[in-house]
Amino acid sequence: METMEKAAVNVTEASVTGRMSTFNHEQLVFCQDNETGLRSIIAIHNTTLGPAVGGTRMWAYGTEEEAMTDALRLSRGMTYKNALAGLNIGGGKAVIIGDARKQKSEALMRRFGKFVNSCGGKYITAEDVGISTRDMEYVRLETKHVVGLPEYLGGSGDPSPVTAYGVYMGMKASQKELSGNDSLAGKKVVVQGVGHVGEYLVEHLVKEGADVTICDIYDDRVNAVVKKHGVKAVDAKDVYDIPMDIYSPCALGATINDDTLDRLKCSIVCGAANNQLKDEELHGQEVLKRGILYAPDYLVNAGGIINCYWEIVGYNRNAALAQAEGIYQTALNIFQISKTNSIPTYLAANQLAEARIASIAKLKATM
Ligand code: NAD
To answer: Which of 138, 227, 238, 250 has the most C-beta neighbours closer than 10 Å?
Structure first.
């Protein structure tokens, strides 16, 4: 049936609607404005659970094709993340094509805000790479469909404490899965990157009596965290070679790759960084093969979006933290699916997210 409809309108895999149909995207909104030079794409992947929520990224994409691919990929990722976190929101993402250091202006951001507003609340935006709090202030002047705003604008402020708490919960669940006991006391945990999330995570770990080692590319960050929390430090380039129980990537993505997997001697990977598996399929399978328990990044770092969600429904930090605590049980459910079906944990996470969306779609169809 689907194939016949596609054929009737000559939809090819290379066409825009053909590309959208690959992962069943609902809507792509192309925005263009000669006055400000704005060129932007808003991608709405799935709104079964609620309005599509996801940040706006400004990047100097080489081509429009690249920008569209990123918007499609990232918005789909948000659908899975929001669904798995148990939030009543769907997945979306916006990209603005351009160099964030050179091409941004107040007028451009306000024009973008008008485009977001024209979606009528079906897409709710937030900050992402290349977009600052100041930019969001401009967007906010044109639309109320913005989250992740600073407290002085009535927003929820820094999400990092909630993100760190979710990562901590994911780590405890991973430990429980491995040993039957979720205590991290005495466990050698290496936190790579002690920025906003990393430092809050260190605080939880130290409180629980974990044996914490940190690294960062900035000496001042390392010195400040070592001094404040009494932890050890390792040079950033040696981080994959020291003995550890738990590796917690809280800086960059793609740190689980062919090179690091040969060096890492940990039994758990659990951290805040996005896209930790360089090649999801390949390295997701590889960690499973090597007996390393990988807590899916998009589950354990969902505290940020949980914080934003509570901004939509009426902000309450304690409610956000309580919801982030749910990451513990979701992680255990994922580990169970992974074991039962002998599949990598990232795949088990995807299946759980898809099952939730399918069940709500079915429910809606009967209402
Ligand atoms: P941040 O920029 O505050 O901190 C990152 C830290 O990592 C910095 O101190 C930086 O110097 C350090 N770093 C960079 N490269 C490094 C390297 N090669 N080795 C060691 N340290 C390095 O960022 P953050 O807000 O703490 O977020 C950390 C990660 O978690 C990012 O990947 C981010 O996308 C992700 N994340 C954050 C949130 C949140 O709420 N802040 C939510 C979801 C995901």
So the answer is: 250
Please confirm, yes or no, whether 114 is among the known catalytic residues.
Answer: no
Tokens in use for 65? Answer: 């094709």
Give the pLDDT of residue 1. Answer: 35
Q: What ranges in 264-367 are assigned the alpha helix state H? A: 280-289, 297-300, 303-313, 317-325, 327-341, 345-365
Bridge-based pairing of strands 246-249 and 188-192 is parallel
Atom of ligand 1 nearest to the CA of 271: 30
Q: Is 324:169 a contact under the CB 8 Å cutoff?
A: yes
Give the per-residue pLDDT at 5: 55
For 189-207, what is each residue's pLDDT tens digit? 999 999 999 999 999 999 9
Q: How many domains does the chain have?
A: 2
Same domain, 197 and 337: yes
Quick one: which of 366, 344, 315, 325 has its CA closest to 154? 315
Q: Is 173 exposed, middle or buried (CB count within 10 Å of its CB: 0-12, 13-18, 19+)?
A: buried
Q: Whose CA is nearest to atom 20 of ligand 1?
A: 216
The reply to whether ligand 1 has any atom less than 6 angstroms from the CB of 192 is yes
CATH code of the domain covering residue 175: 3.40.50.720
Final residue before a domain boundary, out of 118, 133, 153: 153
Q: Any idea which residue has 């006391």 for tokens?
A: 185
Entry pTM: 0.93
Confidence band (pLDDT; 50, 70, 90) for 12?
confident
